[in-house]
Specification:
alpha/beta; 36% helix; binds 2-deoxy-2-amino glucitol-6-phosphate
Length: 606
């Protein structure tokens, strides 16, 4: 968590830093700060609260320097407060940090024995003292940072500013950091979205790298201290892609971007000639020889994996398991060299997922990453990567990247099914015609928005919800419950509809609405029986469905339908409905939709 940014050049650093932080705010938003060097002094402005509050404080002072660092925080050690906000200053040095210093207590005690007192509750402050101590000894910024970081256990991306130098030092281990290249100016940031208004030429640092960043050049040293060349890339994301574009919230914009995001993920991979599916340069034939597949991910990406498993077993016939990354890394799931581990992470930076990738590789498995972020850590840790081309997602609640992940998993299952000989040409051709319909199906679902808003108005005051579905609609129900919880703070629980009678049915009364997801296959009739059970206990029912019938209409108090024959792609018809429902409920409750309390988009801590 946390977003960091650095600038050295000819512009007013404060303006660049605030603009960059605004774009990183999704990474954390409980406090923020900047440090700018001017007239040989480091000026620090930091505060509890959001970037807008920091911006007001910065405008009240005149901050003219052209080199500085900034930070937006998601608290791990120490509550959100002015004093715990970054940057942390010690002597001639100011530091911003993203990550966790695991041995900060020992380091703190060591510093205290030397008479250096920490004034904040953060783990980061020790880094500032360590760097300042080394800098006082050697007078060299790069050497000071390198030596100081040798004492640090845990993860970090840091940027250091020195009161007597026109130089920034960036360093990373286990947390992302990217250098942006401009004309007589350079940038550092946790994520490229912070750089988009200024440059699209970037270099992703690798673990252990230390970058010496000046206005006119950048030098990078690896963990052995050797100067290294890291490839510079040109990004095709535009600044507008990371802006609201007239929508009230990023989340709403991203929900509506799904047809395009899905087109980008799907269309280039479906060829009009054999073998129909191409997964960039993935060795699909080789991957299809795997004995089994273990999917690992967290949160929404984990829900995508649950759908991926259904596709993989149904279309490719490869036995598949789905694991939460936070459990997998400490668990006993059998893994060997015949296992394909598919690690799914929108950001490519989720700590638990990255550690699962490392653990899987240690145990000999082949790892395929599915991610939305070019240059993210997971792309370097896994042997293979399949990108979702959904564009930047800023809202903390994942929406377009979820459906893009599900599409990528469906394509993967089709490619492996083909290479395994489970799908013949007519079958593959038939399914791909449906897959090509996905963007249009999502578009039709989005046309239900005003209807969904009406339904949201009837239900937004309820405090508890159940989300229910069977088969492919069960993971969809789980995603529905998560969306509602995270942005509206309403308690919502998801169950496989058939499980209700084994306990949760006891919860049902007139104050506990149930949201059902139904798609057109053999599960539908069973799901409707479960609806009967709810109805019999005076539970209110909202149905999101891909079909209508008299029976369904009689059971549901409210029903929204996106007609679709093909069950396989039903998650793409139903997901926009649950996203819009959660969105409108949250708006009616007046919550902070894009930056819900206690959360951050990129979870780079364990
Ligand atoms: C859900 O809306 C969240 N954004 C969250 O559950 C997210 O999916 C999870 O933290 C995993 O993130 P990742 O896909 O970037 O690894």
């Amino acid at each position: 968590m946390c977003g960091i940014v650095g600038y050295v050049g000819e512009r007013k650093a404060a303006e660049v830093l605030i603009e960059g932080l605004r774009r990183l705010e999704y990474r954390g938003y409980d406090s923020a700060g900047i440090a700018v060097r001017e007239n040989g002094k480091v000026k620090v402005i930091k505060t509890r609260g959001k970037i807008s509050h920091l911006e007001t404080l910065v405008q009240q002072e005149s901050v003219n320097g052209s080199i500085g660092i900034g930070h937006t925080r998601w608290a791990t050690h120490g509550k959100p407060s002015d004093i715990n906000a970054h940057p942390h200053v010690s002597g001639a040095v100011a530091i911003v940090h993203n990550g966790i210093v695991e041995n900060y207590r020992e380091l703190r005690e060591e510093l205290e024995r030397e008479g250096i007192r920490c004034i904040s509750e953060t783990d980061t402050e020790v880094i500032s003292h360590l760097v300042a101590r080394e800098y006082a000894r050697c007078g060299d910024p790069c050497e000071a940072v390198t030596k100081a970081l040798k004492n640090v256990e845990g993860s970090y991306a840091i940027v250091a500013l020195f009161e007597d130098r026109n130089i920034l030092i960036g360093a990373r281990r286990g947390a992302p950091l990217v250098v942006g290249h401009g004309e007589k100016e350079h940038f550092l940031a946790s994520d490229v979205t912070a750089l988009l208004p200024f440059t699209r030429n970037v270099t992703f640092l690798e673990d252990g790298d230390v970058a010496v960043v000046k206005n006119n050049n950048v030098e990078i040293f690896d963990s052995e201290g050797m100067m290294v060349h890291r490839e510079q890339r040109h990004l095709d994301w535009t600044p507008a892609m990371a802006e609201k574009g007239g929508y009230k919230h990023f989340m709403l914009k991203e929900i509506h971007e799904q047809p395009e995001a899905l087109s980008n993920t799907i269309r280039p991979r479906i060829l009009q000639h054999e073998p129909y599916i191409t997964l960039d340069d993935l060795p699909a034939r080789e991957l299809a020889r795997s004995n089994r597949i273990v999917f690992v991910a967290c949160g929404t990406s984990w829900h995508a994996c649950l759908l991926g498993r259904v596709y993989m077993e149904g279309l490719a016939g490869i036995p598949s398991w789905v694991e939460l990354a936070s459990e997998f890394r400490y668990g006993t799931t059998p893994i060997d060299e015949n296992t394909l581990v598919v690690a799914v992470s929108q950001s490519g930076e989720t700590a638990d997922t990255l550690e699962s990738v490392r653990e899987a590789r240690r145990r000999g498995a082949t790892v395929l990453a599915i991610t939305n972020v070019v240059g993210s850590t997971i792309t370097r840790e896994a042997q293979h990567t399949l990108f979702t081309w959904a564009g930047p997602e800023i809202g903390v609640a994942s929406t377009k990247t979820f459906t893009a992940q599900v599409a990528a998993l469906l394509l993967l299952a089709l490619a492996l099914g083909w290479h395994k000989g489970r799908l013949d040409k007519p079958a593959l051709k038939d399914i791909t015609q449906h897959v090509l319909e996905i963007p249009r199906t999502v578009h039709r679902a989005l046309e239900e928005e005003s209807h969904i808003e009406e339904v949201a108005r009837r239900y937004f005051r309820y405090q508890n919800f159940l989300f229910l579905g069977r088969g492919l609609s069960w993971p969809v129900a789980m995603e529905g419950a998560l969306k509602l919880k995270e942005i509206s703070y309403i308690h919502a629980e998801a169950y496989a509809a058939g499980e209700m009678k084994h306990g949760p049915l006891a919860l049902v009364d007139e104050n506990m609405p149930s949201v059902f997801f139904l798609h057109n296959d053999h599960t539908a009739v069973k799901t409707m029986s479960n609806m009967e059970e709810i109805k019999a206990r005076e539970g209110k029912i909202i149905a999101f469905s891909t079909f209508t019938s008299e029976k369904l209409a009689a059971l549901a108090d409210d029903i929204i339908t996106v007609h679709l024959e093909e069950a396989l792609i039903s998650p793409f018809a139903l997901s926009p409905l649950l996203q819009l429902f959660a969105y409108h409920v949250a708006v009616l409750r007046g919550t902070d939709v894009d930056q819900p309390r206690n959360l951050a988009k990129s979870v780079t801590v364990e």
